[in-house]
Amino acid sequence: MKYIDEFQDPDLAARLLDDIRATVTRPWALMEVCGGQTHSIIRHGIDQLLPDEVELIHGPGCPVCVTPLEVIDKALEIASRPEVIFCSFGDMLRVPGTGRDLFQVRAEGGDVRVVYSPLDALRLAEENPDREVVFFGIGFETTAPPNAMTVHQARRRGIRNFSLLVSHVRVPPAIEAIMQSPDCRVQGFLAAGHVCSVMGTAEYPALAERFRVPIVVTGFEPLDVLEGVRRTVRQLERGEHTVENAYPRAVPPEGNPAARAMLDDVFEVADRAWRGIGVIPDSGWRLSPRYRDHDAEHRFQVGDITTLEPAECRSGEVLQGLLKPHECEAFGTTCTPRTPLGATMVSSEGACAAYYLYRRLDLPGRPGSRPPGATAPTATDAPAVTVPSREDSSVV
Ligand code: SF4
Q: Which of 335, 348, 356 has most ligand 1 atoms within 8 Å of CB, for mutation?
């Protein structure tokens, strides 16, 4: 497939791996920020092909996974109201709140609809002036601009029965929080390329300098990831800590000025809670006062709902890179994609789902894992994988 195959070329992958092997002299721990990168890494076995010295730690960049439980509970409360048409990307319907999920709300009579764009929700609001239409706006700098634009359109066109339940988060404050954690082992970052395609790279040099970590803007195909790893390892071996753009085909340094202008118009930076991590200062957005009329949390008075995360799910540790999914006791036993205990198993970008989908049940320490002494897979051993189909829309 043109534009995809060229970034999955096995010969080029082997050359990049040779280069990484020739460069590395000691252990390094790198974090890939985005769940899309995690899936690419696990699906293609990239972490198993890298030299033992290079460890990939899976970061928090999955929009569904980081949405806190209390926001899910607010969504459940709003979606249960008879006057509401609650619209969401498909991923969110199976994320468990306290005791139920949006699918169950729908089964109980709630009008919960899967849409493919926030503009679909706005159209529903236009077509149903006697109903309240709410769109569940979650995700990072990638999903925030279209949601901002939809609220902007609603206000401009006087569509008053449309509102947004906002839970948007920003990557740079999360990197700061990860680096400030006393347990942090991360020595370099593969920054999320699509986030930078919106926001540019201007926020990263200060972080790289302050924490003395290389930050390499990285894409999502196997060669993109390997190139990000290669550049990060090269910097670490040289004692450097700069920002590099290894994804220039999608990321101009200034990002997307029109999208950023829309964000500045509709949102204001605010503290946000991250699932399993807690509140990170200035790590998200909320609607600015000019658009408060379209704030579902304000409109439906659900701001005082607070919920504690369940102790049995260790997704907070997974999201901070402190635990690999297969190290969670519930992984693959009581917690599977069909019976998820946490968002990292539900989401199509979640690290737990990636480990499950791509057979990381077969890991040392788990029943049926590769016996001691068995050889690690090579590039030519890479298994043929079946990509799961996505029946529903998803947040990216
Ligand atoms: S395997 Fe399940 S219970 Fe364990 S951290 Fe992942 S989502 Fe939570």
A: 335
pLDDT tens digits, 34-86: 999 999 999 999 999 999 999 999 988 888 888 988 999 999 999 999 999 99
- Could you report the per-residue pLDDT of 199-212, keeping only the tens digit for each? 999 999 999 999 99
**CA–CA dist 7, 227 (Å, integer):** 11
Q: pTM for this structure?
A: 0.86
Specify the ligand 1 atom closest to the Cα of 352. 6
> What mean pLDDT is predicted for residues 165-184?
94
Question: pLDDT for 116-143, tens place per residue?
Answer: 999 999 999 999 999 999 999 999 999 9
Q: How far is the CA of 247 from the centre of ligand 1 (A)?
A: 31
Say whether pLDDT at 112 is over 80: yes
Kindly calculate the radius of gyration of the chain based on its CA atoms and give it in whole angstroms.
21
Angle at 102 between CA 99 and CA 107, to 5 degrees: 95
Q: Give the residue extent of every domain in the chain.
A: 1-309
* 388 C-beta neighbours (distance < 10 Å), count: 12
CATH class of 1-309: alpha beta
How many angstroms separate the first and last alpha carbons of the chain? 21
Give the residue, out of 275, 277, 331, 338, with the most ligand 1 atoms within 8 A of its beta carbon, to mutate for a pocket test.
331
Residue entry with tokens 């990060």: 232
Nearest CA to ligand 1 atom 8: 313
- The residues, ordered by sequence, that sit 6+ positions from 261 with a Cβ below 8 Å of its Cβ are none
Q: Are 92 and 348 in contact (CB under 8 A)?
A: no
- Residue 321 CA to residue 250 CA, distance in Å, equals 27
Distances (CA, A) of 212 to 218, 233, 237: 18, 14, 13
